[in-house]
UniProtKB/TrEMBL annotation:
Transmembrane portions of the chain: 12-30, 50-69, 81-100, 106-129, 141-166, 178-197, 269-288, 300-320, 332-354, 360-385, 406-423, 429-448
Species of origin: Galactobacter valiniphilus
Subcellular location: Cell membrane
Gene3D superfamilies: MFS general substrate transporter like domains
GO cellular component, one term: plasma membrane
Keywords, alphabetical: Membrane, Transmembrane, Transmembrane helix
Residues making up the signal peptide according to the UniProt record: none
Protein name, UniProt field: MFS transporter
Low complexity bias (residue ranges): 220-253
UniProt-annotated stretches for the region Disordered: 203-253
SUPFAM superfamilies xrefs: MFS general substrate transporter (SSF103473)
Membrane topology, from the record: Multi-pass membrane protein
Lineage: Bacteria, Bacillati, Actinomycetota, Actinomycetes, Micrococcales
Length: 450
């Protein structure tokens, strides 16, 4: 039995690697578009409050439709359709950002960009939660979020390279070029889902049984009986397919609701952790360019700093399974929240106190450490939430997680813009660091109760 399960896990992953490659394309485009959008806003004469509003717009549509998309993903026979829609929407939003003539055009395109990202992310996370055995959840989510980190590395670096040190009218022209490049890269992810993977049985509906299992702080593999018996069949084909009618054998009656999901032990703390971690990424991406502009630092340098942060997250996720086995999820989660909150408050200070090379070097060190801590959190929150709900609820639970993230992505940039008005753009970053520390305290309290 164990050997058969191992064979399934090794052979049943072509769909995962296609998903990973597509995620690299979409997230590279997305993470080129978002920081470059800040430079376009600055070229329009926008202030920190306007940057906060445009950043919040990115999450407005996802906040309204996250639950509906999660339920749709639970019922869909072929998740690759939703993946393709997400990638194509990201590309179209990039075109909208390039063509936007003013602040309101940027806000509208940012909202569409957020919907595309939500659709792709829900479909990808649902595929991993549905077809990965409990022992493979950390690996699947780890690779998926590592792909996002690769995009977070490539996108800002490429954007900074294109915008470079251009100023005046030349700056706006370089920004426009970068936005078109970002749109093309994001849209390229659609091509991977045009047809099923080679050898896919198109008309096959695979029944899957997924047991949530208890949280595994020790990192031990769950019992063989908890494995998804049909994961190999589903994954070795091209289409990621749902069970007939979207049902999962042995699932509890009744559809999942936000209230039911949030009442599951461990879910609220994991939701707050996910919200604070993603808010940190958003605020860094939107406001570190504003910090750099205020201090006279070239966009190429800021893009490199953001890319270095992402590289540290990639390194972290490459060793995440080992860390889970050695340390356990609870301690890793607390380390990530407290560690990132402490270290990421320091780069703006370093850049301001030591102008030029010394400040950039010190900021790089703290971004590496903070990026490593940030990289721990997102896959762990996905695993903890997936294992805290019944198997049939996983797509919806991950959608609730994304809805919480989007709520944070609406509120936090708005608050950040208000804080940045008196305190400067660095104040927005410090406020989000404080949220990370609060989230760490909440996770510690939850762990103590459990």
């Amino acid at each position: 039995m164990a050997r058969a399960a191992s064979t399934r896990e090794r052979s049943g992953t072509p769909w995962l690697w296609v998903l990973i490659v597509a995620a690299v394309f979409t997230q590279s485009g997305l993470n080129l578009l978002r920081p470059v959008t800040s430079y376009k806003l600055l070229a329009f004469g926008a202030d920190s409050v306007a940057v906060g509003v445009a950043t919040a717009a990115y999450a407005i549509i996802p906040l309204a439709v996250a639950i509906a998309l999660g339920r749709l993903s639970d019922r869909m026979l072929r998740l690759r359709v939703l993946l393709a829609v997400g990638a194509a929407t990201l590309g179209l939003a990039g075109v909208g950002l390039a063509l936007a003539p003013n602040l309101w055009g940027v806000i509208a395109a940012s909202a569409v960009l957020g919907f595309g990202h939500l659709a792709f992310t829900i479909a990808g996370q649902s595929a991993i939660a549905r077809y990965s055995s409990p022992r493979q959840l950390d690996v699947g989510f780890g690779w998926f979020t590592a792909a996002y980190s690769v995009g977070q590395l490539i996108g800002p670096f490429l954007g900074g390279l294109i915008v470079g040190s251009a100023h005046g009218d030349g700056r706006l022209g370089a920004v426009q070029t970068a936005l078109w490049v970002g749109a093309a890269i994001a849209a390229a992810g659609t091509l991977l889902f045009v047809a099923p993977l080679p050898g896919s049985p198109r008309d096959r509906r695979t029944e899957v049984e997924i047991a949530p299992g208890p949280p595994d702080d020790a990192g031990e593999a769950p019992a063989e009986g908890e494995a998804n018996a049909a994961a190999g069949h589903a994954a070795s084909g091209g289409d990621v397919q749902a069970p007939p009618g979207g049902a999962v054998p042995g699932a509890p009656e009744g559809r999942p609701t936000v209230l039911k999901i949030m009442r599951r032990p461990g879910v609220p703390a994991a939701m707050l952790a996910a919200l604070s971690l993603l808010s940190m990424l958003d605020i860094l991406t939107a406001f570190l360019p504003v910090v750099g502009e205020e201090l006279g630092i070239d966009p190429g340098v800021i893009g490199t700093l953001l890319a270095i942060r992402a590289l540290a997250s990639i390194i972290c996720r490459a060793v995440l399974p080992w860390m889970v086995g050695r340390v356990g999820r609870t301690l890793l989660m607390l380390s990530c929240l407290f560690g990132s909150g402490a270290t990421l408050a320091l780069p703006p200070l370093a850049l301001a106190w030591w102008p030029g090379g010394p400040g950039i070097a010190v900021a790089t060190v703290f971004l590496v450490i903070g990026g490593f801590f940030l990289g721990i959190g997102q896959p762990l929150t996905m695993t903890l939430i997936s294992q805290s709900v019944p198997g049939a609820w996983r797509g919806s639970a991950l959608a609730v997680r994304l809805m919480g993230n989007r709520l944070g992505q609406v509120l936090m940039p708005l608050l950040a813009g208000l804080v940045a008005a008196p305190w400067g753009p660095a104040g927005a970053i410090w406020m989000t660091c404080a949220l990370l520390v609060v989230s760490g305290a909440a996770s510690a309290a939850d762990a103590g109760r459990r």
